[in-house]
């Protein structure tokens, strides 16, 4: 198996169908997807999070290599990436919509709990023992603010992961494929 320069990804696979379909785990295989039990594409997408490259050196057994295979794989990767990018962009829009919907509900709940907290902190609650009154006051305040965590997670953190996926898919779409024969 040839060694790849640092700027290239080296992907040995024993069956070309494993490029897009996850094979069964086989730790004794010569192909990375087979060893890990993931498709070649999923392996590449994971690698893009750690490596910046524009070249894939695909190592295949001799029986898998046909004329024009590099171009076919390149086209297939581009088509796959473009479809997944559309899917991720749709998911991003749905996530934002869901996030704003949940934010509205969470703000109403926050207002209710802060009102309850203020009630227990006011002079109206003097008849309740001090320890219980303070516990309820601070408890309702904490619960109210905690209700905002999920909307923040949806509106801030989920889009970051989706944007990272889209960036990796764009790299996959632009990948130059070189074919090598497995030893």
Keywords for this entry:
183 residues, mainly alpha, 3-stranded parallel beta sheet, 60% helix, 9% strand, elongated
Helix content: 55-70%
Structural class: mainly alpha
Assembly state: single chain
Largest sheet at a glance? 3 strands, parallel
Give the CA-CA distance, first to last residue.
6 Å
Q: What gyration radius follows from the Cα positions, in whole Å? A: 26 Å
Structure description:
A three-stranded parallel beta sheet has the order 1-2-3, with helices on one face. The chain has two domains: 8-73 and 174-181, no CATH class; 90-170. The chain has helices at residues 32-36, 40-48, 69-121, 130-146, 149-173, and strands spanning 8-12, 55-60, 176-181. Helix 2 (40-48) crosses helix 5 (149-173). The protein has 183 residues and is mostly helical. The mean pLDDT is 91. Helix content is 60%, strand content 9%.
């Amino acid at each position: 198996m040839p060694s790849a320069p640092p700027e290239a990804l080296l992907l040995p696979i024993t069956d070309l169908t494993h490029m897009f379909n996850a094979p069964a785990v086989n730790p004794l295989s010569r192909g990375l997807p087979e060893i890990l039990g993931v498709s070649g594409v999923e392996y590449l997408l994971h690698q893009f999070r750690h490596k910046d490259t524009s070249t894939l050196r695909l190592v295949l057994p001799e029986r898998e290599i046909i004329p024009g295979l590099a171009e076919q794989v390149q086209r297939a990767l581009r088509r796959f990436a473009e479809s997944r990018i559309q899917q991720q962009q749709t998911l991003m829009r749905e996530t934002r919509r869901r996030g704003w919907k949940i934010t509205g509900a969470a703000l109403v709940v926050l207002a209710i709990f802060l009102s309850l907290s203020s009630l227990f902190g006011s002079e109206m609650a003097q008849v309740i023992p001090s320890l219980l009154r303070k516990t309820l006051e601070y408890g309702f305040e904490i619960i109210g603010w905690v209700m905002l965590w999920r909307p923040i997670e949806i509106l801030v953190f989920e889009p970051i992961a989706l944007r990272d996926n889209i960036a990796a898919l764009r790299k996959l779409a632009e990948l130059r494929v070189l074919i090598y024969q497995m030893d």
